Inverse folding.
């Protein structure tokens, strides 16, 4: 079983930045991704990065978020970004588009991000 541990969540004002981290055993074996879930809403894919470094972002975060193997840099945060953020992984290369939660076998416990207006 692969354990993923997130850190870096917190509270920030709109327009601010946060960096989330995801600790995994070996990044070069997995497709790594971030998902988020706001209260009363379905979990949605935010970004993913494949073994070869190729990335994919949800339209709502393109240009503001940047994913790397072990981090999610979030800039220009908006109140609608408020959610519990989860790190996820599955073995091998990412699929396309690769932001479907059912493709991911390994999940972290989540870290809360709150953006105030």
């Amino acid at each position: 079983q692969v354990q993923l541990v997130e850190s870096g969540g917190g509270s920030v004002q709109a327009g601010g930045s946060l960096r989330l981290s995801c600790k995994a055993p070996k990044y070069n074996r997995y497709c790594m991704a971030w998902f988020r879930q706001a209260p009363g809403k379905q979990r949605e894919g935010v970004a993913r990065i494949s073994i070869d470094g190729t990335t994919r972002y949800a339209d709502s975060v393109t240009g503001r978020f940047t994913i790397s193997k072990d981090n999610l840099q979030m800039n220009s945060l908006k109140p609608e970004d408020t959610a519990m953020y989860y790190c996820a992984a599955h073995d091998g290369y990412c699929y396309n588009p690769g932001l479907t939660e059912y493709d991911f076998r390994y999940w972290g416990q989540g870290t809360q991000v709150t953006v105030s207006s």
Remarks:
- The chain is about 0% helix and 45% strand.
